[in-house]
Amino acid sequence: MLSTYGWSPERADQFAEWHLRGCVPGRVLRQEYGSWLILLSDTEHWVRHARKGLAPVTGDWTAVRSTLDCVEAILPRQSLIERKAAGKRPEPQPLAANVDLAFIVMGLDHDYNLARLERYLILVETSGARACIVLNKRDQHPAPDACVHATRAVARGAEVVRLSALQDDVPALLGGVLGLGETAALLGSSGAGKSTITNQLLGSNVQLTQAVREDDSHGRHTTTRRELHLLPQGWLLMDLPGLREVMPWTDEHVEVRSSKLKAELEELRAKRAMRKRFLQYRDTKSRW
Predict the structure, then answer these.
(1) Are 257 and 118 in contact (CB under 8 A)?
(2) Do 85 and 59 fall within a single domain?
(3) In sequence order, what are the residues at sequence separation of 6 or more whose Cβ sits closer than 8 angstroms to the Cβ of residue 238?
(4) Domain identity same for 97 and 54
(5) What residues does the EngC GTPase domain cover (predicted)?
(6) Model confidence pLDDT, tens digit, residues 38-58
(7) Could you give the CA distance from residue 97 to residue 128 in angstroms, rounded to a whole number?
(8) pLDDT, tens digit, 9 for 90 and up, residues 98-123
C-alpha cells in the first residue's frame, strides 16, 4: 500500500537506520491539533505523540515507534511548502511536505490578482516543487483568453490551465501533468474553487463547498485541515485551507517583479537574521 502513496527504493534507503531500531515507515495523511493520521503498510493509525523537536506535516514520511504511539523521525523531505506565519513575528509555518506539483488556483472573478500570484509562485519555487497555475471560473470572466495571456507573462515558466470546475472535465485537464504515486497540492484563496476541483478529481463530494460573496468573490473556509487523498488516476492530492496572507519563507534571493514584495522579502530576511542571533544567544546562555 505504501508504494501507491509514493514509497520508493530511495525512501527505503533513508528508512534503513530506523528499521534497525524497530520502527515502521508511514506517511502522514492528515494533521489535526497535534495528532497525525499516518498510513502504515496495511492500515491507517492515529499517532498522538512525536519526539521532542519534531513537527510532522501532511505529506511527511515518518519513522513510527513499533508501539505505534510516537513519531521517532521525519525522513528527509523532497520538498517543503512553507510560508511566514500570519502575524508580525518572523516564524515559519510549514504547510505541506513531499509535494511534486502545486496547483495554484485562482478564480477569474474578483479573486484574480497577478501580484498575489507572484507570491504563490515564489512560495512554490523555493519549496522544491514545481507549479501549475489553474485559472478557474472561466465562465465568469468576459475575456478569459486575455487573462491566460497576462498570466503566462508572469508565470515564471509554470504551465497555465484555464477551466471551469463546474462545467469541464477536470481530471482530463489536470491529470496529464502528474505520474503514478506523485503528490499534488492545491493552493489558493478561500472561494477560488479548490474544494470543487478536489471533488471533481475524486469523483465524489468529499470536501464541502460554499458560495462566495457576489461583491468581492470572498469565500469562507470550507477546507479546514490538510488531508492527502488517493485519486482514481493513481496520484495523490492535498487540498489546503485558503491562505489570507501569502509571504514566502525563504532566504533565497529570487527575482521579484513587485517592488512591494521585494521590500517585504528584504525586511523578512533582516528579521530572520535577528531571530537567528537571538536564538543562538539564548542557547549559549542556557548552557551556562
Answers:
(1) yes
(2) no
(3) 58, 59, 96, 99, 183, 184, 185, 186, 226, 227, 228, 229
(4) no
(5) 97-244
(6) 999 889 999 999 999 999 999
(7) 10
(8) 999 999 999 998 889 999 999 999 99
Q: Which domain holds residue 116?
A: 80-239
DSSP string, 61-117: EEEE-TTSS-EEEEPPPS-EEEEEPSSSS--EEEEEES-SEEEEEEESSTT--HHHH
Q: Among 29, 35, 34, which Cα is nearest to 2's? A: 29
Separation CA 191–CA 178 (nearest Å): 25
Are 166 and 288 a contacting pair, CB within 8 Å? no
- pTM of the predicted protein model: 0.87
Residue whose C-alpha cell reads 465568469 in the numeric block = 140
Question: Residue 147's closest CA among 169, 137, 171, 156?
Answer: 137
The verdict on 47 and 124 lying in the same domain is no
- Are 110 and 124 within one domain? yes
Examine the domain organization and report whether 90 and 134 are in the same domain: yes
Q: Which residue has the cell 512525536?
A: 50
Q: Which of 160, 93, 103, 152 is nearest to 129 (CA)?
A: 103
How many domains, the chain? Answer: 2
In a shared domain, residues 186 and 233: yes
Place of cell 493552493: 187
